[in-house]
């Protein structure tokens, strides 16, 4: 489809694109609505519609704010050209809140994770794409510029689709914060309950889930964990300059001052990585343990039996022609570093990318793809 100005789309056109939001075109649910396949003429698109749901707190007017924020986000120059973010075609405000993406989807990552035809190579490729996307969002071009970073906050395998080329595309931005997005005043009386909206079930930071606290610093006080470690970052600025980790720490520290920090996304990435290697997703109706909780428990059990070398890779993936045992160990260890309970004990997202690039399947099979993104 030729590039055009983002346009307002009528409800009648949305119904035409999606065959009246038919079940045949339904892809999946996201936190505040549904995603559908669509066609504009012969061109395949994706339609995301905010619809009534009861699982998450949502007050009248909230989704209108989310739509406006998404229009701001996806038209920002640094964001709109990213290969793992969708290209916006248009939006609808009258009769139905929705956006239309120039995206030909196959299925959600949530559904792909359980598929037997989703290979080890494809799974590690998706893990790398997601890590690279988070690296772009978390670490701005100018790390001193505290206004140019983003935190997703509601990462969920259901919020990603794979396109016809098996590339990962993030399709929900309902809890994005930072960058060019306006801050919402959550202190209004009617919104007080919304402050506890901390992400998507199954992917919420374990520290937040257990303590109810959002942030490294709350009400100006440092939080001290049970281990007696300060859950904050020490920023050391050298006389002759600032090293990279310190620059990143400055961004994290500034983020923590208003409650949120990028490690919430790192934790959710760890959950997805476990899902990719162990073929597990959280399904509310099953009432099964969260994937992150399962991983921590299973890892401890297996380590007590086999020692330090522990793999959570599903047996069927171990039989994949591109699988190597060393990669299974490395991917498992990386996931566990992401799932650390205390935020500052987790691995930085740039280090996640570095570790994924060391995998044999990446070095041996994806080298051309990596070079193509440089």
Care to describe what's here?
The structure is a single chain. The protein folds into two domains: 1-103, Phosphorylase Kinase, domain 1 (2-Layer Sandwich), CATH 3.30.200.20; 105-373, Transferase(Phosphotransferase), domain 1. The model is unreliable at 186-195 and 217-258 (pLDDT under 50). It has 14 helices and 13 strands. It is globular, with a radius of gyration of 21 Å. Strands 1-5-6-4-3-2 form a six-stranded mixed β-sheet, sandwiched between helices. A three-stranded antiparallel β-sheet has the order 7-9-10. The longest helix has 19 residues, at 120-138. Helices cover 37% and strands 14% of the residues. Strand 5 and strand 6 form a beta hairpin. With 374 residues, it is an alpha+beta fold. The protein has helices at 11-18, 62-73, 77-80, 109-113, 120-138, 206-211, 244-256, 263-278, 291-306, 315-318, 325-338, 349-357, 360-365, 367-373; strands spanning 7-8, 26-30, 33-40, 43-50, 88-92, 98-101, 105-108, 150-151, 160-163, 168-170, 177-178, 217-218, 221-222. GO terms for molecular function: ATP binding; protein kinase activity. This is Protein kinase domain-containing protein. Its main location: membrane. It comes from Corchorus olitorius. One of its GO terms (cellular component) is plasma membrane.
């Amino acid at each position: 489809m030729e590039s055009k100005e983002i346009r307002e789309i009528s409800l009648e056109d949305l119904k035409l694109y999606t065959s009246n939001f038919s079940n045949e075109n339904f892809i999946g649910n996201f936190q505040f609505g549904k995603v559908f396949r669509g066609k504009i003429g012969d061109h395949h698109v994706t339609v995301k519609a905010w619809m009534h749901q009861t699982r998450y707190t949502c007050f009248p007017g909230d989704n209108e704010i989310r739509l406006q924020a998404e229009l701001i986000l996806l038209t920002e120059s640094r964001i709109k050209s990213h290969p793992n973010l969708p290209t916006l075609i248009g939006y609808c405000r009258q009769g139905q809140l929705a956006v239309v993406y120039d995206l030909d989807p196959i299925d959600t990552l949530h559904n792909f994770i359980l598929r037997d035809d989703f290979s080890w190579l494809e799974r590690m490729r998706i893990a790398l794409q997601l890590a690279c996307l988070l690296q772009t969002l978390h670490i701005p071009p100018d790390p001193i510029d505290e206004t140019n970073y983003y935190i997703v906050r509601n990462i969920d395998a259901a919020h990603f689709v794979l396109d016809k080329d098996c590339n990962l595309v993030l399709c929900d931005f309902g809890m994005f914060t930072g960058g060019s997005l306006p801050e919402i005043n959550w202190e209004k009386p009617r919104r007080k309950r919304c402050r506890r909206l901390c992400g998507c079930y199954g992917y919420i930071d374990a520290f937040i889930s257990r303590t109810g606290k959002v942030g490294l610093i709350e009400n100006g006080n440092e939080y001290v964990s049970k281990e007696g470690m300060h859950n904050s970052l020490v920023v050391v600025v050298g006389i002759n300059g600032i090293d990279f980790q310190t620059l990143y720490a400055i961004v994290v520290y500034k983020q923590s001052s208003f409650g949120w920090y990028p490690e919430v996304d790192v934790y959710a990435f760890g959950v997805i990585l476990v899902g990719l290697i162990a073929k597990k997703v959280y399904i509310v109706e099953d009432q099964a343990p969260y994937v992150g909780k399962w991983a921590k428990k299973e890892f401890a059990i297996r380590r007590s039996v086999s020692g330090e070398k522990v793999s959570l890779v599903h047996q069927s993936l171990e039989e994949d022609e591109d699988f190597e045992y060393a990669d299974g160990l490395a991917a498992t260890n990386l996931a566990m570093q992401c799932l650390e309970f205390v935020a500052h004990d987790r691995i930085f997202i740039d280090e996640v990318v570095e570790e994924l690039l060391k995998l044999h399947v990446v070095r041996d099979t994806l080298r051309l793809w990596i070079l193509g993104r440089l």
